[in-house]
Structures are given as structure tokens and as C-alpha cells.
Specification:
The strands form six sheets. Strands 13, 14, 15, 16, 17, 18, 19 and 20 form an eight-stranded mixed beta sheet that branches. By secondary structure, the protein is of the alpha+beta class. It contains 20 helices and 22 strands. Strand 4 and strand 5 form a beta hairpin.
Length: 637
Amino acid sequence: MTVRHAAAPQGALRPRLPAAGWPGALGMLARLLALLAWAATSPPAAAQPADPATAAPAPATGPRAKVLRYAFRVAETNFDPAQVIDIYSRTVTPHLFEGLYGYDHLARPYRIRPLTAAAMPEVSDDFRTWTVRVQPGIFFADDPAFGGRRRELTADDYVYSFKRFADPALKSPAWTGLEQQGIVGLAELRREALEGRRPFDIDRPIAGLQALDRTTIRFRLREPRPRFLETLATGDLFGAVAREVVEHYGDAIGAHPVGTGPFRLVQWRRSSFIALERNPGYRDRVYDAEPAPDDAEGQALRARFAGRRIPMVDRVEIDVIEEEQPRWLSFLQGRHDFLEQMPASFIDLAMPGGRIAPNLAREGIRGYRMVRPDVFYMLYNMEHPVIGGLTPDRVALRRAIGLALDVPREIALVWRGQAIPAQSPLVPGTRGYDPAFKSEMGDHDPARAMALLDLYGYVDRDGDGWRDQPNGRPLVLEITTQPDNQSRALDDLRAKNLAAVGLRVVYKPAKWPENLKAARAGQYMVWRVGGSAAAPDGLPALARYHSRQIGGQNMGRFVLAEFDALYERMELIPDSAERDALFHEAKRLAVAYAPYKTLIHRIVTDLVRPQLVGYRRPLFWQDWWHMVDIDPAESHH
């Protein structure tokens, strides 16, 4: 299989000498309060894992427990791999479940390596048959569902886990993507359940998913899939689940994840708090990441941790803090060891001129920056009677909205310069992304927007100052949004931009998980959302335009036969000049029909306190908690 090179993040910014100041004082107070709270708490003594929905917070193992603490900026949804799509849930799941393959924590460019597999897969010359052997001696975390016995991982567990995505009852948001891999017999099994209105027959053998013996699994695909290894390395979705656990917990499986991973879920207060603890039955696995020879930062981490047993931390605690200021203050006060994606509104305080602020440097805080492989975009419902469709007037309306939006001003005022304009749906660091590609997605041109609207009949017919539809009915853009400060700031700017060209906006705020649910069901008009690359190839970013993935990645519900043909050709062929040309043509169609308005790629800055050692921002994968340590000796007091 051809390996594609991804852009590497910049190294850690060097801290300076220590400083006092109010953040340090508040941090000392927070640490004192934390110690007092710990002293009043006793560790749990239950023999079986506690119900994560009701368990009370407690130290992992005692006063020397190593606890990694940080915050999500958006709430999770659940922890059943077959039922998640959001990045926050998918940041938790790969620490609980394990795919057959994973990514090397230190390798830049990326490297895929065996995780629960015993070796790299055996692949037929036509890329249609993939045979994988599972390591013996890997066990699921203990759980009451197993009746008190240790449960070993087998090839059948992966057969079962992949089949679950096809079960219509689960409505898996990842099904449409998996369906495109063409596992022989899987789509037909799903279709029979739908057409016959009967339960999905997960026990029926299919040719495309076979456990040849206890440790060998064979995948057979309808067509060549040269990059199928990247699917097998997507452990946040395609990690093994045990049938006994799914049947034991039924509809509550999303709150009771049990996998073979380094951690287990011990507490979950939905949209508020998540706690994981070291899986006591985790296999003997050591830190064996392999950076490039000329990667000084990676080589230093390897020298420090090579041979250490993982995970190195005992517990991970995640608060959900949606507002920027409280999340920033929680880090300043020492409540969190790590601040992922430094809020843009405070970037000048933390990283003036791109260097760590002196007061933070004196506390030993480090900063890590990179252009993230993600994209934010305006999502249009192509089935909506006002905004959707492929007729020239609807295309003109969507293009005019895009041209009216002043993305450079958003980057300057809201993102504080921590973003670059997105010219296409392809994201930095993935195959198909071209930093030289330029399109009208990066333009702010209100004059051209007004000319398009005038040309296609979107004019003010009743004299109220707002444009109407060509049929004379009022034109109101209903935009779904979130009730946080950053969204409000972006909403204000966009309302002014659109008003400047005569377009009226009504915002409909709701929590992000609710908006996601509505978007997947097609119950919206316009929404701003983001997406991150989960693999090195750029094709998954184009899944948003592929008609067979409506209900999954294609939340815009876009249908264009010409685009589908390009997408399906790119699935078949190896990386090549032909495939690069198809990427270019796909980007051209995406811009021309504008079912999405791409906005920005973020420049993200992560801040790390000195006691958190070993951190390196992943490129496409989400699992890293087991590869870092909490070292109190490094903490500045």
C-alpha cells in the first residue's frame, strides 16, 4: 500500500523563566482546595466496575494516583462506536476500544502499525482481499456482562463489530462511509432487514467478513480499495466490542462501553463530566513509538519513555466547558493540565507574537501550534425548498451568501488570526490538499453577491428593505447555531455581512448535540459546523458531497451524478497523477454548486502544564492519553 506523507506539526515552543502574578496565586489556591477535597474522599472498594452513570468521583488508586485533567469545548454524545460521529465522543472511544491497527504516536510523517493485529495485513494484488491475524492473549476489560470470567479478544469480535454498523436499528452515522468500502454481502444483509421489516440477522455468514479461525479474519471487498488499511486503523469507530456487553446493556450500550483499550469508563455525567481509569487487566504493552531520525523532539520523547509500560497515567478526567473564558480560567488556575485548542479570544495573552507569554513561561507552561487538518463550513440543506436544489437561482443564492461573508474579518476579529481561509473542502496535510489552490470560497465580494442576487430575481419586491424570493415570497435565512460566546460573535458578523447585501437572517440556537441530530435528519436550513480528518487520505472530506452518504457524512444531502462518478473512481485507484487530477476536478464541482461554503482551517494552539510530559498533538488520530505521563516533580510551585 502506498503511504502518503502528512504535514508535521511544529515542535514545542520553549518556555522561559518563571513569573508570579495572579494566575499563579489562583493556581496555588485551586491546588490547595483540590487537596482538601481529596482528603475528604475515600477510594471505591467495589469488586465490579461501578455504573459510570451513577458512580461518584474518587481518586484512582490513592494519593500517588496520576490524573490527567482537561476540558472538552463541546459535549460528547455517547460511547458506542457504531453510534458516534462527533470528534469529542470519538476522542474517548479509542481509549476504550482498539482497532486492528493504529498510528505511531511519534512518527512524522505518519506510520500505521499493528495494534491488536499480530502483523501487517496480507493483501491481494487487486486490493480486494485483506487477511489479518489477531494477537492472542488480549482481553476485554472486566464487566458484569462476562459473568465473572476473563473474556479474550477473537476474530469473531471484529466480525460482529463491523456488522453492527449495518444494523438499521442503530442508524449508525458511520454506516454510509463503511458501505463505500464494499464489504461483500454486508449492504445486502442490511437491505434484507429493511425491505423485509425484520431484525438484522447479524449471525448470518457473509463472504466479506469471515473469521477463518479464532485469530484470523478475512475481509473481501467488491472492488479494489488500496487504502482500506486506513479504515482498519480507525479505532475510534472500528474497535472491537463484545457481543455479550451489547446484549447485556441493550439500548444503554452507549453509557457502558467495554473494550480492550488501556482505560475503562468509570463515571459519566452527560454533557458535564467524564472519567476514565486505567484498565487493570490491560496487556503488557510498552512505549515503543518510533520518530524519524532527524526529529529532535520525537527522539527526546523516545529517549525518555522507551520501554515504559503504558498507560502511564492512572485516571483521566474531562470536564465539558463550552464557554471560552471559564475554560481558559480553569487552565490558568491549575485545575487542568492541558488546554486543547487555546480559545482564540485569549491567544494574544497566551502567545503574543507566537511565543509563550512570560508569565506562563515562568510557570513552565509550553505551547504547541499547528495548522489543524480540519475545515469549518456553512452547511446548506439541499432538500430545503428555499436554499436547496441545483437550479441556477438556488446555486446563485448559495454562492451569493458565500461571497457576502467576510471570512478575513472573522479570522481577524473572532479567531484572532488563528485560521487561514479554506479554498476547498480538502484539509491541510491530507492527500488532495493543494495550498496553491484558489477559488471563490476564499473571496469576500459583496458587489458580486448583490449582482448574482439581482440577476436571478432575489430583489426587494415589497419595499421593506429585504430581498424576497424570485416567486415574491419573503426570503428569510434560518441559521442553526449554538448559544456560546464564540458562536454569538460569528453570528453577529455574519448577520451584518448578509444584511449589507439585503438578506435577512433568523438564528435558531440549540446545544451542539441537538443541532447535529437535526442536521442528520435534514431538519434545518443552514448550519455552521466543522470536520476533522480522521485519516491521511483526502477522500473522506469529499464524502460530504457523495450522494450515497446522505444520512451520514453528507449532511447537506447533495446529489450530483458527475461528482459521484469522480468520487467512486478515486476510491478504486491507487495514489497517482490521475487521482490528483480527479481531486482537482472534485474541488471545482464543489465550488461551482456550493452545497457548502467552506470557511477556515484553524491554527490550533495547545497549552501544556509542566507536569504533563510526553504530549504531542496527533495528526489524524485521537488516542494519546496512554502515551503521556503526569510527573509531579516537573510541576512549578
